[in-house]
Records
---
Amino acid sequence: MTRGVFEHQLEQLQELLLIMSSKVEGNLGLAATILQKADVQGAQQLIAADEGINQAQVHIEEMSLTLFATQQPRARDLRLITAVTAIAVELERINDYAKGIAKISLVFNPSSLGSEIVILREMADRLQGMMTGAIDAFIARDVAQASAIHAADSAIDSLYEQLQQELLAYLPTHIEDMENATKLMWAAHNYERAGDRIGNICERVVFLVTGKIIELPCDMSLL
């Protein structure tokens, strides 16, 4: 395999990752919409579509292994292949969280909870923005942007805590909604975990650029 062919395959590998990330980003927002509308058909479609995301992750992993086996990648190439493989794993897990919310929507009644669902919607919107930012940082090899996106996860944690507090204040006088509130809390927990996974993607971007495996946040001047 010539170097030119190898570089073309590296480009194809990254393109597969970008396609996968676009689908996962869309599913993050779609999950909240499905929950808000109690959209059973939409939920079933999102759940079924998860298999395609799983297959995309496996395809990326298999292609990465083939590149390892058939070439002698340079250090930068090794970091790229390793980063793409790791990011694909994170994307697969993020989509699992979206699928989990779709499953919750099948047994959730949105009519009894109002402001709490609005908070969940905001979490979804912010996560979509973070996902876009993290992948943009990957494309641009931008360590500073990756660090900034990672820091934005604190807003997701704050929204999660706000939703918890509102539910705790609501339930004493609406005990009949306990089961429904618990389901909403699980949905919010899925989004909170998705934020952590996006943070992991940002750390992989830093590794790709610097060759250093670090845990953000850190002093960027030391990289």
---
Amino acid sequence: MPDFIQRRRLARLLDRTAEQFTDRSIPEKGWISTMRLALGMSAEQVALRKGVSRNAVYQAERSEKEGSVSLKQMENLAAAMNGTFVYAIVPNAPIEQLKYQQAIRKARAMASQVSDFAHWSKDEQQDWIDDAAAQQLHDMPADFWEEVVV
């Protein structure tokens, strides 16, 4: 498991990457077909550059739309069209926010195990949850990302 500093560096990398991918819409025809058509290339011309049949290019375009194209196919076709295939997992929110949300869920689940918690004042309950979440974020226990059931 990476240490705290390494996790922070990785989080910053992912956060910066996410900023670049704010518009993640996939073209209606898919990336392969859109790139090919934008270049004015026929499927046969792409096929010749890639060393496959024209039908293989059409099949890759169909497979992409179905979500079953391989990463290697995407990479090879992008290269055949003088492009670069980019593959990424982009977080839906900043990494620290995702971790904080999980810490709060964990803290609320832990609070349900505290006797008389329901009888505490709302301020005391919130303070306890905030402290427990901060402790979870600091310690990052092995079960931190396990599904929380309340």
